[in-house]
Amino acid sequence: MTENRYYQPKNAKDALRYIEGLFNQYVQAPLTMELVAYHQKLIKQIQEDILPAAQNAGQAVQVENAKQMLLTMQSWLRIRMSGQPFAGKMHHFRFEADNAKPKFKRHVIKGRNGGAHRSVRH
Fold first, then answer.
1. What is the pTM of this model?
2. Cα–Cα distances in Å, from 114 out to 90, 100, 111, 118, 119?
């Protein structure tokens, strides 16, 4: 029963992907002492568990991803502690600004067809 309670990653990339998802969940949350402690715990986990495991496995790409992720997470804490908003999220283990991707506007044209067959002009 207890072995199914906690998430057990298969390798370093799987663990980094999981921590990235957790980070993106709380990146815009109000800053509290509990959140800072949780964030520090995730940083410590990357430094002490994931980074040595990737180095021992000889995965140079995952070592670089872990280092980049550490830098992003440490900068998040500095930015939020100074009272500034963190305008972005983590994508592929790197910081991605909110305005980095283009946004496409959609305007649905209602024709005389059925409801499921609507044309869209971008």
1. 0.76
2. 41, 37, 8, 8, 11
